[in-house]
UniProtKB/TrEMBL annotation:
InterPro entries: CBS_dom_sf (IPR046342), Peptidase_M50 (IPR008915), UCP006404_Pept_M50_CBS (IPR016483). This is Zinc metalloprotease. It comes from the Bacteria. GO terms for molecular function: peptidase activity. Binds 1 zinc ion per subunit. Its cofactor is Zn(2+). The chain crosses the membrane at residues 20-45, 57-78, 118-141, 147-168, 196-217, 223-241. GO terms for biological process: proteolysis. Belongs to the peptidase M50B family. The keyword Cytoplasm does not apply. Keywords: CBS domain, Cell membrane, Hydrolase, Membrane, Metal-binding, Metalloprotease, Protease, Repeat, Transmembrane, Transmembrane helix, Zinc. Its main location: membrane.
């Protein structure tokens, strides 16, 4: 476990200012957040002077800065909604980042069920709707409109706007994830849901561009601000949708590919074999090291074997073995998507493939699967190691 100091150094290298931990999740403030907050102050401060008689420039700036903080806290609550549901479902969250256009919860594992995907996605907008209701009721209960009333009312409106925008049915927005979960539940294929939600992201981006151009054509007072914000948001949506599609390609088993095409041959050697000999035998194949009592000592780790052979070539190969864990064993009849999910969720570089009777049938190397999926994501033809 990292210490607080090392955590802060690591997070700082990722381009964000560490603030604190919420529910054990590091919360970062990206540099772009300051730019967005400055824009809010510039736009909001004059509004205070117009809507609140008697408010001077200093009051306007202070209220604008407070509104920027309130908005940041609202986005933080929105993202915590996602994160807490993810943790509840057993999905670890790496960190939570606040940036120019909102925030993001970095869930470290992909939900394996459409219900989980939908639950995580809807949690954020529900938090925003709740906050909008609370601030709206507070504004209604206030006796007379003044500067504080304006701050409360604007925070209610901002939370409502965050909820409505995020519910638009296009990735990478929450509404896109909800759409993906729904299509996934109906079709049984996450990839189909992703394609539908990516198309929705394109529609959302197009609507933003149309709205920006419409503001310029009709000469609205805020046309240039609207133009800039809409174009920036449209770019964010398109880039996020494209990233989601690429990620989906990298986690979806290609049609027509069989596990046997990726599996390398496996060789069983005595665990006491010289490590140099075992390393030579491992070229292009996996090596299962077996003790004299018939129990497997593990899979030969080639990097460990190289280091050991450089200093002690006659040392027992078992010293360079990685134990065979249940999560690193694959059945030869497992579906491709199950194989991808297992490899993505397990830290190992090689997986033992066994037949229905438990006998070693080959090994799957992480790099082989990655090369095929990366080639599919980029549109290149990746050649499986077992193909001819």
């Amino acid at each position: 476990m990292a210490t607080t100091g090392s955590w802060r150094r690591q997070v700082g290298r990722d381009g964000g200012l560490p603030l604190f931990r919420a529910a054990g999740i590091p919360v970062l403030l990206a540099p772009s957040w300051w730019l967005g907050s400055a824009a809010i102050v510039v736009l909001y401060a004059p509004m205070v002077s117009r809507l609140v008689p008697g408010a001077d420039g200093t009051t306007g700036v202070l209220l604008a800065a407070t509104f920027a903080v309130f908005l940041g806290l609202s986005v933080l609550a929105h993202e915590l909604g996602h994160s807490l549901v993810a943790l509840r479902l057993g999905l670890p969250v790496r960190r939570l980042r606040l940036f120019l256009l909102g925030g993001v919860s970095e869930v470290m594992r992909t939900p394996t069920r459409p219900g989980h995907e939908g639950a995580i996605a809807v949690a954020g907008p529900l938090v925003s709707i709740f906050l909008a209701g609370v601030f709206a009721l507070a504004a209604v209960a206030m006796p007379a409109p003044d500067a504080i009333w304006l701050l409360v009312a604007q925070t209610a409106f901002a939370n409502a706007a965050v909820a409505v925008f995020n519910l638009l049915p296009g990735l990478p927005l929450d509404g896109g994830r909800i759409l993906r979960a729904g299509v996934w539940a109906v079709t049984g294929r996450r990839a189909t849901g992703t394609k539908a939600a990516v198309a929705g992201g394109g529609v959302v981006a197009a609507m933003l561009v149309v709205w920006a151009i419409w503001g310029v054509l009709e000469g609205s007072e805020d046309r240039w601000v609207r133009f800039g914000v809409c174009l920036l948001t449209a770019w964010f949506v398109l880039a996020g949708a494209r990233g989601e599609l690429t990620a989906e390609h990298r986690r979806t088993w290609p049609d027509g590919l069989t596990l046997s095409e990726l599996v390398r041959p496996v060789l069983q050697l005595p665990a006491e074999s010289p490590v140099s000999g075992a390393l030579t035998a491992s070229a292009g194949r996996g090596v299962v090291l077996v003790r004299a009592d018939g129990v497997a000592a593990g899979l030969l780790d080639r990097e460990m074997a190289r280091r050991l052979a450089s200093t002690s070539p006659h040392a027992p190969a078992e010293q360079a073995a990685v134990p065979i864990r249940p999560e690193t064993v694959l059945l030869e009849n497992e579906s491709g998507d199950e194989v991808v999910e297992r490899v993505h969720g397990t830290a190992a570089w090689e997986y033992l493939v066994v037949d229905l009777e438990g006998r070693p049938a080959g090994v799957l190397r992480r790099e082989d699967l990655k090369n095929v999926l990366d080639g599919r994501a980029s549109g290149a033809a990746a050649r499986p190691p077992g193909s001819r």
